[in-house]
């Protein structure tokens, strides 16, 4: 489900196979929606116009969008380990779709290779996660793997060093070498990584925090880690991944 002009436009730009679209007849005359509807029709998409009440019944958000669409799920997981140096974010049991979407957004922004929805993580292609990613989930290679151990094992076989983000007891973020192929484990919003999942890592990293703060949001943690990796790689002249493109 693509809700809103931004997501539908991003799907068009990403070349997704869009099957159906519903446009508010009251907004069809506006340049943004009219041009977008025209672009969809040129691609052979079935575009229907409905009253505001009809669109409101279809749109999942409280303030309904002027356009919604249904598209095939992107299939780019095979590209997750293509680029070098690798930087993969493995989100473990991140159940809030908005948080997961934000993780995907910042992963693309920092030039990560891709992300994994591991364990009980939210569906990265659910409408809330898609809105949280602001379209990044339509471009960045994503993998859904219910088994965290399998997700970690796959990353390790592809040459990644596994780095677990822990609230305390790990090496300082700025002292960990992230210039090589790496997969970063991010834990759930409430409890973080389980001890068993931490044991899967080759290294543990802790973000320095001033007391009494003890932990950070999962998306914020991801942002700090992937941007520190980007900073280190740029300093050492390593390329930043652009696999999403």
Walk me through the structure.
By secondary structure, this protein is of the alpha/beta class. The protein folds into two domains: 70 residues, Ribosomal protein L30/S12 (60s Ribosomal Protein L30, Chain: A, 2-Layer Sandwich); 159 residues, SPOUT methyltransferase, trefoil knot domain (Alpha/beta knot, 3-Layer(aba) Sandwich). Helix content is 33%, strand content 20%. It has a seven-stranded parallel sheet with strand order 7-6-5-10-8-11-9, with helices on both faces. A four-stranded mixed sheet has the order 1-4-2-3. The longest helix is centred in the C-terminal third of the chain and has 18 residues. It starts with a strand and ends in a 10-residue tail after the last helix.
Q: In terms of topology, how is this protein built?
A:
Layout: E1 2-3, H1 5-14, E2 18-24, H2 31-42, E3 46-50, H3 52-58, E4 67-71, E5 87-92, H4 97-109, E6 114-118, H5 127-133, E7 142-145, H6 148-157, E8 161-165, E9 171-172, E10 182-186, H7 195-198, E11 203-206, H8 218-235
Parallel strand pairs: 2-3, 5-6, 5-10, 6-7, 8-10, 8-11, 9-11
Antiparallel strand pairs: 1-4, 2-4
Helix pairs in contact: 1-2, 4-5, 4-8
